[in-house]
Design brief:
2 copies of one chain form a homodimer. Chain A contains 11 helices and 18 strands.
Chain lengths: 391, 391
């Protein structure tokens, strides 16, 4: 794939000239590092796909939690952003005035907080129950705030979502009875369609059928879904084959990870984020211990595709992080000729990058072995710690 | 067990009188909440055990990462604190001037940062290689800083640690050649001795034997270990039965968790930290979805003891968090009569509390259903985000 280089400088200004470039080897470990060229390429690729197929791109910020990358996504044509938490909404309100909370908004504290998002931000919320609708209707009425609502439908993930077109119609009609709420459409999350992209055909076919039934029943009941929102990263590339889909919400594509690569939804050369770690012990035969454990890598298994361990070593794909403690990662060297020494740095491609980002406050941007920039994971966590009742 | 209540108010001042007590139900979820009475009891119990048996208590702060709880530990008699990261050292230097980094200190950036810890703090580092020793020796010489060193020995965990008494003797003698480093003793981590406390007898017996050999060989080689440091939470209560042990480093005991309870190393009534969550969907039959997923609970399995899922519901111990996404936890209700509704709050006892704390910035302290206080997880993360090269 040809890589776009023309646009990459604007969103990632390099350090002030007075600050000399820092070598990767000078960074304290463990820390996530992002290859800036790969990131720029990933952003371009998804934006281009969506433009080509006329799909609205509303990327999920859960993967990067960074206003800087979100601003890039908007600049490249995203119609708005998808969030999962109030914190993500608060941070991303500075970047986009069109935010979707793709999560049932339940609970007085959370509702109150979300209603405080500045009113120039157009809010959309996805939900799947009368109970959640009732809470949202009351809050929006009190705060005199229009909120668009998607009915969440379950197309096979069995996590959230109404269970039938009949239920979807009923909930859509309920929404219409609660101005200032607006019924805007439906949302689904095809996270269960994780099989290797080459084997997805049957699942995509089933999705076409199931979604078609929902849309037809909603249409005939007079509650046409203006927006049909779906698409995780592995499935996003197939969404132009699913009639009716108007919007996709991929998150992982900005960085990608071992799962995405093994699924075939990206190449290994598209994995933009690695965890830089240092070998701290070789005392036990057959293994090397690195300073990235579950508190740096997350204890995430591979999903929808085979793969042992919790991450793979960049440049040594035969070596995985076989075991972890909180701050120790154990590289299994039993089947490798590689012989890393105490003090050597290694880079790990994690199984699930969204969890790695959530574990870290700062990300470094690199090109080759030069650290060009860094950014804060501003929407990590639940709240600004200053806001707590510190006694 | 009788609970101490006399000391609990000093370390946890309640809110200013002007601030009315807040109900637990008013908290935004997901959030960790700590039962203050249980916490006080747990702190007392370990301190009393160590006092009774003449063991120096050097608690590991990785579990709470909070200077406030560390100050309590010191007040109750801890000789100092154990840390795993430079950030933990930096934060805890305000609380204690006797800190152990129970982790190989490798890499120029990390060494430089640790050498900047104020010199009034007595630093001890555990290590298991000549390479790590060489780096530490060079750094301590440059910064003219005395550092005590423990030789880390592997007594069966097979994670880090020299592999034989001969290697321990050799490394101890190397330390002696590198003033201002001081050889102070040995450290081991009996994390592999996780079996149910009733079944630990054989493991404790083996530990007595193995440790005895190490101490004897070190003694006869003229490198007597002044300190013999060991003891995780599940095994701490047996350390008085292991001759030679002078110091224990339990961490988890402050909060305990499902694993600790299932192991029998604490009672269920000693689990001080739960994750407060809200039911956000009941759409899919047989399950309830809560707003605590892997980004709030951590995807930690049970260790050394059977147990499905990622946490158990307080008051409904037959219900576990069976599956998770990043922000969704799926409660399996298939074998329960409990019928929670959208909007209901639940409290989850997590499998592994240390990882939960690391995922959160703020902890709320509660008594019954009243929120009395909160504190920041100040040593969470790797660095103050302000310190990053923000462009």
């Amino acid at each position: 794939m040809k890589r776009s280089t023309t646009q990459r400088r604007a969103p990632f200004p390099t350090l002030e000239p007075a600050e000399p470039p820092k070598q990767l080897s000078a960074l304290e470990t463990p820390t996530p590092v992002v290859d800036l060229d790969r990131l720029a390429h990933n952003l371009d690729r998804m934006a281009s796909y969506c433009t080509l197929h006329g799909l609205a791109l509303r990327p999920h910020v859960k993967t990067h939690k960074s206003p800087r990358i979100a601003a890039d996504q908007i600049r490249l044509g995203a119609v708005g952003l998808t969030c999962a938490t109030p914190r993500e909404l608060e941070v991303m309100g500075d970047v986009s005035h069109d935010l979707l909370l793709a999560y049932p908004l339940v609970g007085a504290a959370k509702l109150a907080r979300v209603m405080y998002i500045p009113h120039q931000v157009k809010l959309t919320v996805a939900l799947d129950s009368s109970a959640a609708l009732g809470q949202l209707a009351a809050a929006s009425k009190v705060s005199q705030r229009e909120v668009d609502v998607y009915v969440e439908v379950d197309l096979g993930m069995h996590r959230v979502g109404v269970q039938s077109p009949t239920d979807a119609v009923a909930l859509a009609k309920q929404i219409l009875q609660h101005p200032p709420l607006n019924y805007a459409g439906i949302a689904f999350y095809p996270g269960h369609v994780r099989e290797h992209v080459k084997d997805q055909d049957a699942n995509v076919e089933r999705l076409r059928g199931d979604l078609g039934v929902y849309i037809a029943e909603l249409d005939s009941a007079g509650v046409h879904p203006r927006v049909v929102s779906g698409g995780s990263t592995p499935t996003a590339w197939r969404m132009h084959e699913v009639p009716g889909v108007t919007e996709v919400r991929p998150g992982t594509y900005v960085y990608n990870d071992r799962t995405t690569a093994e699924l075939g939804a990206c190449g290994w050369e598209d994995c933009a984020l690695t965890v830089l770690a240092t070998v701290v012990s070789r005392a036990v035969p057959g293994q090397a211990v690195i300073d990235a454990g579950s508190k740096a890598l997350g204890r995430e298994p591979m999903r929808g595709v085979a793969g042992e361990g919790f991450g793979v070593v960049l440049d040594h794909p035969d070596v995985v992080v076989a075991r972890m403690s909180e701050e120790h990662g154990i590289l299994d060297l039993s089947t490798s000729d590689w012989n890393p020494q105490v003090g050597d740095q290694v880079r790990i491609i994690p199984n699930h990058v969204c969890v790695v980002v959530h574990l870290n406050d700062v990300i470094y941007g690199v090109r080759d072995s030069i650290v060009e920039t860094s950014w804060v994971v501003a929407a990590r966590g639940r709240t600004e710690t200053e806001a707590a009742i510190e006694s």
